[in-house]
Write a structure and sequence with these properties.
The protein has seven helices and no strands. With 175 residues, it is mainly α.
Length: 175
Amino acid sequence: MSAAELLQLFVHFLSLSLLAVGGAITVAPEMHRYVVVEEGWLGDDQFTASIALAQSAPGPNVLFVTLIGWNAGGWAGALAATAGIMLPSSTLSLLAFRWTQRRHQLPWVRAFRIGMAPITIGLLLTTGWILAAQNLANPLLIAVSLATIAVLVKTRINPLWLIAAGALCGIAIGG
């Protein structure tokens, strides 16, 4: 990536940072549109693999942003994407937390917190759709996904067991 492209990646992720209500994963569809569809820096498979790898690794969920940056532009891309997504949201979160802690009893502060839940859920569902879209033609993958959802809703099983089962299914399907 050129210096101009790195700056472009940084600025775009900087703007996404302030929209990432519920975490960086909620703006993954916009990241996909930008880095895959618009700029062509990654393919669909690289984008999905970046998220899958980061989500399965221990550590913060935002690691997928670093992998997207890495796949797009190496170390410089990883730094640009990570700094872009982390700086504004971290600063704003710290300031907002301190401010709302002193004013948590105000009705509009409580209403704001309650109102953000459906927005976050909608953004997460959109992310799930983007990640699943390339596998919609495979009925086995759809069945595994639906079974996983059912098990999560109906039981208290540790999700790590389901991740392991999904990995085994992936190995069986993909070789």
